[in-house]
Design brief:
Number of helices: 22
CATH class of one domain: Alpha Beta
CATH architecture of one domain: 3-Layer(aba) Sandwich
Number of strands: 17
Structural class: alpha/beta
Strand order of the largest sheet: 15-14-13-12-7-6-4-5-2-1-17
Distance between the termini: 50 Å
Largest sheet: 11 strands, mixed
Strand content: 5-15%
CATH topology of one domain: Rossmann fold
Shape: globular
CATH superfamily of one domain: Alpha/Beta hydrolase fold, catalytic domain
């Protein structure tokens, strides 16, 4: 061995491997999102760029003003940095006011170290400039919304906090641990590449049926699409009407049965309701030709009839959550034409029935994308639950992507245990034909809101013909089901309707534990002048909206309560296995 030849620095090798693997993972994530929601052809980008250039030319003085201001701010920043290097002091930069609450740069080294302070402020100035440029362009609303969205994605990705060489926290931890943080981060990255997704929580802490989805009950029916779970009573007396819950088929049902203290199922059971739950099957390649009609007839309607047979009830309360709510609405509208349905009330949680404004997810969906996915999936195929989860996370990258990239891969940390994020990572596959049909008729053509424009199970449907008492819940910060759009369900559905707006987002707003009784909700606004006026006139209440919903159900359950029974199912519908069943344990 040549003694003059120095051995390779393991720390340098670790950094090089980390950066290389990190880049590969980013490409893989971008490719997955593009495959799922990327409906843009090269000519689309050319058209988009042409619109951008035309808008700049139309208001050239404004463009020149923004450019000049940007250069002046960067020059001022450079002078500030030079003064700070020479004297140890500098003048306050205006960008500081806008960045005080930015969690990415909250640690002291971002301000105390001259180089990283410059990276931080230069990035924030550039981000501010790009945002102002897009906002100033004279474009149509649709084009501006898309440009705003993708510009923000670009800006978020460029943050110096996302890269090891420009993040002082990452470098300091690598030095403190002798490179161990880089090694662990590289290991975390390889594990996530194997999983096909970013880890958001310590998944080793949770086990379905052990410390999550633990409300006692049994599977009393199953077919190739779902299992039906009946839960044991937790009170001496129960309401005469059972309650059927239909969760979204995109995720596992146990979002409604998390821990003991934040289980929607356990709460409803403890309040005297006999609860049944649909647990959708994580479909396999053998089921890749299932369609929306199959989920309606052999899913929702089959569950309603099974609950009726088991309970021997005349009517029941039925709740649909997110996509489960859309399935429920189409099922009721179609099958009430064929027969009398045993329904007393309906509840829709964060459900879109009007798709005129679907929030940021609309940035990914256009006609080219839908047609391409129809060609790929109309005859069969699966849409991976991992791809769906990654696509939805990409809508909020600064909350659901980049923090985990930095902490997991660059710092080598294990994310904290959090049941909501464990559930979020436990996705389900969807059959291609069902997914493609849903995208075209709901997201692209918005046919569900138009009477008789959509045919489900051989029947033209009209949401206005649904005349049951209906509870509509939306979440104020929901980026998947914007609450202003959910509010339009009031105009689409017939019957007596109650609209409730909860604080927080799509999941945290809905699963707002009654035991913890945090946050707030709004009710009783004036509806005739639209959602904004409704909110201005609504009454705010502290605590969980679950209590309000329970009181609403009581108003429609006036029959005397009956003694609870520990018998689950009946002679026809026998106990097949203990809750939560095996469908929910199947992985993508």
């Amino acid at each position: 061995m040549n003694n003059n030849q120095s051995a390779p620095d393991p720390h340098t090798e670790s950094v090089e491997k980390l950066v290389s693997a990190f880049t590969d993972a980013n490409h893989k994530m971008a490719e997955n999102v593009s495959n799922l929601f990327g409906g843009y052809k090269p000519e689309d980008y050319e058209t988009f760029l042409k619109k951008f250039n035309e808008a700049v030319v139309q208001d050239l003085p404004r463009w020149q003003e923004l450019q000049a201001r940007y250069y002046q701010n960067q020059l001022a920043l450079w002078i500030n940095m030079a003064e700070k290097a020479a004297t140890g002091q500098s003048k306050a930069n205006a960008i500081e006011i806008n960045a005080e609450k930015d969690k990415r740069f909250s640690s002291p080294p971002w301000r105390e170290n001259l180089l990283f302070d410059y990276y931080r402020q230069s990035y924030l100035l550039t981000a501010q400039w790009l945002t102002e440029v897009v906002s100033s362009l004279n474009l149509d609303d649709k084009s501006k919304d898309k440009l705003n969205f993708f510009t923000q994605q670009f800006v978020d990705a460029l943050s110096p906090s996302n890269y090891p060489a420009t993040n002082p926290e990452v470098l300091m931890k690598a030095i403190e641990t002798g490179g161990e943080s880089l090694r662990k981060g590289f290991e975390n990255l390889l594990q996530d590449i194997e999983k096909g997704r970013i880890s958001m929580t310590d998944e080793s802490v949770f086990e379905v049926g052990k410390n999550i989805a633990t409300t006692p009950g049994a599977v009393v029916f199953q077919n190739d699409i779902f299992q039906l779970i009946q839960y044991l009573p937790q009170s001496e007396q129960v309401f005469n009407k059972p309650l059927l819950l239909i969760p979204p088929c995109i995720n596992k049902f146990y979002i409604m049965d998390l821990g003991v203290d934040n289980s929607f199922v356990r709460f409803a059971v403890e309040q005297g309701h006999t609860v049944f739950m649909v647990s959708w099957k994580n479909v396999t390649e053998e089921q890749d030709q299932l369609r929306w009609d199959d989920y309606v007839e052999h899913g929702v309607i089959r569950a309603i009839k099974s609950v009726q047979s088991i309970s021997q009830c005349e009517k029941m309360d039925v709740l649909g959550f997110c996509v489960g709510g859309a399935l429920l609405a189409t099922a009721v509208a179609a099958f009430q034409k064929k027969e009398t349905l045993p329904i007393a009330t309906l509840t829709f949680l964060t459900t879109l029935l009007d798709y005129s404004d679907v929030g940021d997810i609309g940035m990914y969906i256009n006609r080219n994308f839908v047609e391409r996915r129809e060609q790929q999936l109309s005859a069969g195929g699966l849409v991976s639950g991992k791809e769906l989860a990654m696509a939805f996370s990409s809508l909020r990258p600064n909350d659901l992507v980049w923090p985990y990239v930095v902490n997991n891969y660059l710092k080598g940390e294990t994310p904290p245990a959090f049941d909501l994020l464990f559930w979020n990572s436990d996705g389900t596959n969807l059959p291609g034909p069902m997914f493609a049909w849903y995208l075209r008729h709901f997201y692209l053509e918005n046919q569900l809101r138009t009477p008789n424009a959509l045919t489900v199970c051989g029947e033209q449907i009209d949401l206005g013909s649904i005349n049951y008492p209906t509870y509509i819940f939306a979440a104020k910060e929901d980026h998947i089901v914007p609450w202003h759009t959910a509010f339009r369900s009031l105009q689409l559905l017939g019957g007596q309707k109650e609209f409730v707006l909860g604080a927080s987002g799509h999941i945290a707003g809905t699963i707002n534990s009654a035991k913890k009784n945090k946050r707030n909700y709004w009710v009783d606004g004036e509806r005739s002048m639209g959602s904004h006026h409704w909110f201005e006139t609504a009454v705010e209440h502290k605590g969980s909206w679950w209590w309000h919903w329970i009181d609403w159900l009581k108003q429609h359950n006036q029959e005397p309560m009956v003694l609870a029974s520990s018998v689950l199912g009946n002679e026809e519908f026998k106990e097949l296995e203990a809750a939560p069943g095996h469908y929910v344990r199947e992985k993508c």
